[in-house]
Design a protein that fits this description.
Layout: H1 2-9, H2 13-21, H3 27-38, E1 48-54, H4 66-89, E2 100-102, H5 105-114, H6 117-129, E3 132-134, H7 147-162, E4 170-175, H8 182-189, E5 194-199, E6 213-218, E7 224-230, H9 235-239, H10 263-283, E8 290-295, H11 308-320, E9 324-328, H12 331-338, E10 348-350, H13 365-384, H14 393-407, H15 423-453, E11 466-470, E12 477-483, E13 497-501, E14 506-507, E15 510-512, E16 518-524, E17 529-536, E18 576-577, E19 581-583, E20 587-592, E21 596-602, E22 607-608, E23 621-625, H16 634-642, E24 654-657, E25 659-668, E26 672-681, E27 684-694, E28 699-708, E29 715-720, E30 730-735, E31 738-740, E32 754-756, E33 760-765, E34 770-776, E35 781-783, E36 807-812, E37 825-837, H17 841-853, E38 856-859
Parallel strand pairs: 1-8, 1-9, 2-3, 4-5, 5-7, 6-10
Antiparallel strand pairs: 6-7, 11-17, 11-38, 12-16, 13-14, 13-17, 15-16, 18-19, 19-20, 20-21, 21-22, 23-24, 23-29, 25-26, 26-27, 27-28, 28-37, 29-36, 30-31, 30-33, 32-35, 33-34, 34-37, 35-36
Helix pairs in contact: 1-3, 2-3, 3-10, 4-5, 4-6, 7-8, 13-14, 13-15, 14-15
């Protein structure tokens, strides 16, 4: 602590050097004392209070096995209780100032499940005294959760607090640096007024152009959440608040040290850094005389509480509390201090806060796809069984928990890229992915139970060919459905039959696919259900003719070798498929080899739906790889990634766009036509685009099927989505609990490059209320900014007339620590493009939900 004394003692460098030289101090010690004298130029000019918020950052699976992390956090709360109880009894008066903030309610939930009645009572008393605090957040999440899951998770802590007469007013997050706009509404609906955000700027960035600043975040529903846009969640360790846990990550000074420095050297470094930090805040016109700082009990994530922090702070205050006071505080205590200030002039920001760190979901794209299906399936269960009479509340809760655990922000062990073969890496990866699999199993199990309760027919002889088709979405929809038949039943389709709508008694049009599936088309109102049945037609029925084997067709322009390469005349089918186009009453899609799709014409308006400024045709694959100097050296494979920053690719990135090589016609009939476009692209050994064009709707369903090579280098795979409705139309993304216009409805300084969506995106023309929806069933990430490596822009930096483009960002492994290292494997991702008239933005979003949710079809008794 003598360092601060030197700040006031003398400005004579040589005198201090002689003093230190003739003493027992080492060279390092003399250099530190030199820094003390130089630091007098940066000593603070006002008294300060630093509020130290002690917590443990919850990373489930980054530093240890998930179940081991759970065990740690249960014990952390026990340790915190031991400290607070000893202080409360008077056994350890030096710990009276100790405060512990439970960063996540997940840890509390696990503690309560393992606690004795005495421990539970002690915990509640510590919370009521203010020694321990509950945060209103359940875990630090990606943007995968839908609004239902957000509400459920943010309500858990508050519901528990209510059981013993307590109310939570604050929540915190750490590591993640963004949230969907609906996150604010979810907190406010759960009676949480404050959010403390601990931004981590590794491959990310804080908003508003500065940290350590408050603002009001106006939610989509119009409420206001008081946000503190804070520093890194272990910044207090870098300032020296925790003995034996001195860090250097955010601070880039000349002081070289280790975590466990000797006590006096630790204190000298702390004095220099604290003084410099507060002085710098003054130079930056920081308006308050207090500042919050988070601190961890060890130099790691998932760290235990540490009573040494309280003791160190006491010693500091005894010496320097007249100028710089440090207090341990809870979130609620800090916000109470903040609200004593005049907050009427605080800026109010209304809009999205895109998370820079949700991109990990694209490193395990198959399991993210399974997760998204499970999330939709759970919503179906809730709508079909609103009173949970069939699917038990426990089953619903278990499914929601599995969804939560997969969507938590940790995406693997810390050395996943450096040593992807390591057993710990493999073990944690399997456990993480198992959450998605478990959610899928539980959600579909619950749906099966609900459908059986709706007269669902299980496997048995002589089952009637009757089917219930249900629209579970809160919006009308016209969709095609596959009528399910077991393999041995397909013989029925070889003979004449009718597909009857039981409500009208009239036959429905249908089409048999090249794979033998039976497809029909229905328009259903929100929540509507219809019953269909298959009625075989007897060969004696004079109104039918038994299907006969054809010996030879006399009108097919196909040569004897089976090659179909002659331009066809208009067929009897409503969709015309040529060598270079496919055309329905609504759309005409054109392509060229090797360019790909060159036009997507809306025939009702005589306009091309493709953006004039596009670089690639729609659904063209784009592959990126950044080379390393030595591709066999794990250190270089990682360091190449580390240097990428927020570009998520290197300056020397190699980019390749797919080239169309051939087109195949797979189906054409009364309801739809299906064409296959085969592309060649680096990094993928196979890429096929299946375009299913509807005959009677302005709708096309697109399936992207590919085989990704296994590559250790950092990669990205995009699919181009260059659609639009002209310069007047606005692009919307549908997120959890909100609709957002990217690059418009955002907090200043937030990410422009990409965002995560729930069900898709759409273009809306406000004057004519015309809408073009693009549902994204399987892949949530939408790249909005340029793919080129360049200085990235943040919101409000872009030109006023700039417009986001759109690519589906389907695969990435660029992160250097805990993403899945290889993207190799087989994938199929689904999209649907649909044209609507006279819809407002909310109706367009409902249409997206209907498109991705699809109708539920099941066999009934």
């Amino acid at each position: 602590m003598e360092c601060l004394l030197f700040l006031w003692a003398s400005s004579n460098y040589s005198a201090i050097w002689r003093t230190s030289h003739t003493s027992h101090y080492s060279i390092n010690r003399r250099l530190l004392l030199y820094e003390c004298i130089k630091s007098r130029r940066s000593s603070t000019t006002r008294p300060w209070t630093i509020y130290a918020i002690h917590h443990s950052h919850t990373d489930i699976g980054y530093t240890e096995r998930q179940e081991r992390i759970e065990q740690y956090h249960v014990d952390f709360i026990r340790q915190a209780l031991d400290i607070t109880e000893a202080a409360h009894r008077g056994d350890r008066p030096e710990w009276r100032s100790f405060r512990w903030t439970c960063e996540t309610f997940w840890a509390v939930e696990k503690f309560l499940a393992a606690a004795t009645p005495e421990e539970t009572e002690a915990f509640q008393q510590a919370v009521l005294r203010g020694d321990v605090e509950l945060s209103g957040t359940y875990l630090n999440m990606t943007e995968l959760p839908d609004f239902d899951l957000l509400l459920r998770n943010h309500g858990k802590a508050q519901k528990y607090a209510n059981t013993f007469g307590h109310r939570i007013d604050s929540a915190m997050t750490a590591d993640i640096n963004g949230y969907s706009w609906g996150y604010a509404d979810s907190l406010l609906r759960n009676n949480i007024e404050h959010l403390f955000s601990c931004i981590h700027t590794h491959h990310g960035m804080y908003p508003l152009g500065r940290k350590q600043t408050p603002f009001w975040w106006e939610s989509p529903e119009g409420g206001k959440l008081l946000v503190w846009n804070g520093e890194h969640y272990m910044f207090g360790n870098e300032l020296g608040f925790c003995p034996k846990a001195l860090g250097k990550y955010i601070i880039k000074d000349e002081l070289q040290h280790q975590l466990m420095e000797p006590e006096q050297r630790h204190n000298d470094i702390a004095a220099i850094r604290i003084n410099r930090y507060l002085w710098n805040l003054e130079q930056e016109s920081y308006p308050y005389s207090f500042v919050p700082v988070m601190v961890s009990g060890l130099g790691t994530d998932n760290a235990s509480p540490n009573a040494d922090i309280a003791e160190w702070i006491t010693e500091w205050n005894e010496l320097y509390g007249d100028r710089i006071t440090i207090k341990m505080a809870t979130l609620s205590e800090f916000f109470a201090v903040l609200k004593q200030e005049d907050l009427s002039s605080l800026p109010v920001h209304r809009g999205d806060w895109p998370d820079w760190w949700t991109d990990g979901v694209a490193s395990t794209a198959m399991h993210t796809q399974i997760y998204r299906d499970a999330q939709r399936t759970l919503r179906k269960v809730k709508r079909l069984d609103p009173g949970q009479q069939t699917a038990s509340p426990a089953a619903i809760e278990e499914t929601a928990q599995a969804l939560t655990m997969y969507a938590e922000h940790t995406w693997g062990y810390h050395s996943s890229v450096y040593e992807p073969w390591h057993p710990q890496v493999q073990m944690l990866e399997v456990r993480k992915q198992a959450y998605a699999a478990e959610a899928s199993k539980l959600a579909h199990q619950a749906l099966d139970q609900v459908l059986v309760a709706r007269r669902g027919a299980l496997l048995a002889p002589h089952r009637p060919l009757r089917y219930e088709v249900i629209n579970t979405e809160p919006a009308p929809a016209a969709l095609q459905v596959i009528v399910p038949l077991d393999g041995w039943e397909h013989v029925i389709l070889r003979n004449r039959f009718e597909l009857i709508d039981e409500s009208t008694g009239q036959p429905l049009p249908y089409q048999l696919t090249h794979t033998g599936a039976l497809v029909t088309e229905l328009a259903l109102a929100a929540g509507e259900a219809r019953v269909l049945f298959i009625r075989p037609l007897e060969s004696s029925d004079p109104s039918s003719l038994a299907t006969a084997m054809v010996t030879a067709r006399n009108t097919e322009p196909i040569a004897c070798e089976g090659i179909d390469d002659i331009e066809r005349l208009p067929s009897a089918h409503p969709i015309v498929v040529g060598q270079r186009s496919i055309e329905s009453a609504a759309f005409r899609i054109e392509w060229a080899i090797p360019t790909g799709i060159t036009a997507w014409i809306d025939k009702t308006r005589s306009i091309d739906l493709l953006d004039d400024t596009r670089e690639h045709g729609p659904f063209t694959p784009i592959y990126e790889v950044t080379p390393a100097q030595d591709e066999t050296d794990p250190a270089q494979v990682c360091s190449t990634r580390r240097r990428m920053g927020r570009n998520r690719k290197g300056l020397d990135v190699q980019r390749d766009a797919g080239r169309l090589t051939r087109v195949n016609v797979l189906d054409n009939g009364p309801l739809f036509a299906l064409v296959e476009l085969i592309y060649e692209v680096k990094g993928l050994s196979y890429y096929a685009l299946h375009i299913k064009l509807f005959a009677h709707q302005a709708r096309a369903e697109v399936s992207v099927r590919f085989h990704k090579d296994s590559v250790w280098l950092p990669e990205n795979v995009y699919v181009a989505l260059p659609f639009g409705l002209g310069s007047d139309a606005e692009l919307y993304v549908e997120k959890a609990g909100s609709l957002v216009r990217p690059w418009k409805d955002q907090i200043p300084g937030t990410c422009l490059d990409y965002t995560s969506v729930q069900e898709g995106i759409f273009w809306h023309s406000p004057q004519e209320r015309e809408v073009l929806t693009l549902s994204m069933t399987d892949t949530p990430l939408v790249q909005l900014g340029t793919l080129a490596h360049m200085p990235r822009q943040l919101h409000t930096m872009q030109a006023a007339d700039s417009r986001p483009s759109a690519h589906a960002w389907i695969l990435t492994n660029y992160w250097e620590t805990n993403f899945k290292a290889t993207l190799g494997g087989f994938y199929e991702f689904r999209y649907a493009l649909e044209r609507h008239h006279q819809l407002d933005p909310q109706e367009a979003a409902n249409s997206l939900h209907a498109s991705t949710g699809q109708f539920t079809v099941h066999r009934i008794r």
